[in-house]
Amino acid sequence: MPPHLTQVHHVVPWQKGGLTDIDNAVLLCNASHSSIDTSGWDIDMRDGRPWVRGPLLFDPTQTWRPAGQNRAAIPAEKPNWNK
């Protein structure tokens, strides 16, 4: 999902003392962001990197896994403005 089609999710909600900075934020698609509190998915920030744990139905082991196994974690090619 391109970043411009995502929403910022505060891992620790502001109402519960979470900071409103990038160290407490992840990008989620609109559907995931609207259902994150009821979907069974958990997100945790560890050393500035999000870790995710799927719901029991998806992951019976309830294993925390580092996020970023996707194209967003790969450094993008620098834009060539002279094209």
State which percent range the strand residues make up.
Answer: 25-35%
- What structural class is derived from the secondary structure elements? mainly beta
How many structural units, i.e. domains?
A: 1
Total strands: 5
Biggest sheet overview:
3 strands, antiparallel
Rounded radius of gyration (Å) = 15 Å
Inertia-based shape: globular
General description of the model:
This protein is mainly beta and 83 residues long. It has one domain. The chain contains 1 helix and 5 strands. The protein has one helix spanning 30-35, and strands spanning 6-10, 25-29, 42-46, 49-53, 65-66. The strands form 2 sheets. The chain has a 3-stranded antiparallel β-sheet with strand order 3-4-5, with no helix packed on it. A two-stranded antiparallel sheet has the order 1-2. β3 (42-46) and β4 (49-53) form a beta hairpin.
